[in-house]
Design goal:
This protein is α/β, with parallel strands linked by helices. It folds into 2 domains: 166 residues, NAD(P)-binding Rossmann-like Domain (Rossmann fold, 3-Layer(aba) Sandwich); 285 residues, Dihydrodipicolinate Reductase, domain 2 (2-Layer Sandwich). 35% of the residues lie in helices and 20% in strands. The strands form 3 sheets. A 9-stranded mixed sheet has the order 16-15-14-13-7-12-11-8-17, with helices on both faces. A 6-stranded parallel sheet has the order 3-2-1-4-5-6, with helices on both faces. Strand 5, helix 6 and strand 6 form a beta-alpha-beta unit. Helix 1 crosses helix 3, helix 6 runs antiparallel to helix 15 and helix 10 crosses helix 11. The relative contact order is 0.14.
């Protein structure tokens, strides 16, 4: 067990072990992310990656799997055979039964000549975390500077999250644990910190005096696909709000950190979660909507409702959509509503943050003055990554002096920075793991405070009289979600 003072783990490493290399996350996200890092010259020559899986496969089968992953999930215009070969040559494979302690001696032999320390990335079920930690510790592969990376979900609720964290800290110091949320690796999310704290135009207005309300939307056009068994035990609040949306809220609402290091940033995010207003039985009726999708049509294709998906339980009451109105109870955000919205089988896949600034109250223009709202800042994470500020301008024409309209001033990262493509969240986070930078990873307190808030929300909903609502697949969600925001004199931003 590692204990005592916080361990400085900032050394750049070149030994990486990926558990679950044959799983969906690795094939769809992690291996393509490694490719882009290779293409961009970000990987040192000595980097070695060991893939660990339960299945017995040969080196040639591993190489074929890696090539299939890259050709499927990397755009053809970016694929280069030489770069692909260079990356694939970094990989080797070890078949292991992670629940069998003897397997870790086999693993140790595979990496006995590798440089220490190394990173261990657990792209596997949380139920296996303890076995892996015990196995690595028992085989002598846990060192003071090695890194342990864990994927969400870190638990199902507060209690299970605490149990997982206790298992991790048996062997690792908090400074060695990298709890990953790939949203935080997105270019636009990282730019949010710069936007807020490097531009006085925004920093001076970033409070209740300048902002009327904030909305965060993460809409998905896909359904459950082959994740029905997992998702039905989680639901949309646990799956999306607890991690992704609350992390985005923290970055929007946190106070300026003293420094741009992991401790300072994490400390400010924790303060936001501590100030997040809990929902109770009374506030559920006006502040929370829970819904499930039914049969519908997306892009002309019929889609089954949630309970009609393959393998579904016909009586399931698990929510696939939630919208929440909440507040942050501190001096900066007093009275500012934050609206969170996320759902599956929506009309389009969209992830965005919208900041609605307050209007001046009195306009000197003759037309539309009653309908004018304040300026709007749109921070888009999907389908494109960029930032747009809606400002008021005059239409063209010699007879339109007193008319105004809202026009976007946009920042497209690909165009303005001449990028070959926008890096995925995983590219940035993999580099941070190699370099020992934890600023975009979650600390234990963040995770557990987010679970506490979600647990309290679900408990309040379950004890309330509010029913589960329904919405058609391919729609923008239930009408009750519209009412949740319009009853407060606001509206969801739609392109």
């Amino acid at each position: 067990m590692v204990s005592g003072k916080m361990i400085e783990s900032s050394k750049t490493i070149d030994s990486f072990v990926l558990y679950g290399i044959l799983g969906d996350l690795s094939i769809r996200k992690l291996i393509p992310a490694w490719y882009y890092l290779e293409r961009d010259g970000k990987l040192c020559d000595s980097l070695q990656i060991l893939g660990v899986g339960r299945k017995e496969i040969s080196d040639s089968e591993l190489k074929k799997m890696l090539r299939d992953s890259l050709t499927t999930y990397v755009s053809a215009e970016y694929l280069d055979q030489k770069i692909m070969t260079t990356l694939i040559d970094r990989f080797s494979y070890c078949s292991c039964d992670l629940q069998n302690s003897d397997s870790y001696q086999k693993l140790k032999l595979k990496v006995q000549d590798w440089n220490m320390p190394m990173a261990h990335y657990l792209a596997i079920s949380p139920g296996l975390f303890e076995a892996v930690c015990d196995g690595l510790s028992g085989s002598g592969l846990v060192t003071k500077e090695c890194r342990m990376v864990v994927e969400k979900p870190v638990g199902y609720d507060l209690e299970s999250s605490q149990e997982i964290n206790e298992k991790l800290i048996k062997h690792f110091d908090e400074s060695q644990i990298y709890r990953i949320d790939h949203y935080l690796g997105k270019e636009t999310v990282q730019n949010l910190i710069t936007l807020r704290f490097a531009n006085s135009l925004f920093s001076s207005q970033w409070n209740s005096k300048g902002i009327e309300y904030v909305e965060i939307t993460a809409a998905e056009s896909v359904g459950i696909e082959d994740r029905w068994g997992y998702f039905d035990g989680m639901g949309q609040l646990r799956d999306m709000v607890q991690s992704h949306l609350l992390q985005l809220l923290c970055l929007i609402a946190m106070e300026p950190p003293n420094r741009l290091d992991d401790q300072s940033i994490r400390s400010e995010k924790v303060k936001v979660l501590e100030a997040l207003k809990p929902l109770n039985e009374e506030s559920i009726a006006t502040s929370f909507v829970s819904a499930q999708y039914t049969d519908g049509v997306i892009d002309g294709v019929k889609k089954p409702g949630y309970i009609n998906e393959e393998g579904a339980k016909p009586d399931s009451s698990t929510e696939t959509f939630v919208s929440v109105k909440t507040e942050i109870q501190n001096w900066r955000w007093s009275g500012v509503p934050f609206y969170l919205r996320t759902g599956k089988r929506m009309s389009t896949k969209t992830t965005q943050i919208v900041i609605h600034f307050k209007s001046d109250g009195h306009y000197i223009f003759n037309e539309n003055k009653e309908n004018l709202k304040g300026n709007t800042l749109i921070i888009s994470l999907h389908p494109t990554e960029g930032i747009s500020l809606q400002v008021f301008t005059k239409p063209h024409g010699v007879d339109k002096h007193s008319i105004i309209r809202s026009d976007p001033m946009s920042l497209d990262f690909i165009k303005t920075q001449k990028l070959l493509n926008i890096p995925s969240g995983y590219q940035s986070l993999l580099m941070d793991i190699l370099n020992g930078n934890q600023s975009l990873f979650l600390c234990r307190e963040e995770v557990e405070l987010a679970w506490k808030w979600c647990d309290e929300t679900l408990e309040a909903f379950n004890h309330s009289n509010q029913e589960l609502f329904y919405y058609r697949a391919g729609s923008n969600g239930p009408e009750q979600s519209e009412a949740l925001i319009t009853n407060n004199g606001h509206q969801w931003y739609e392109e």
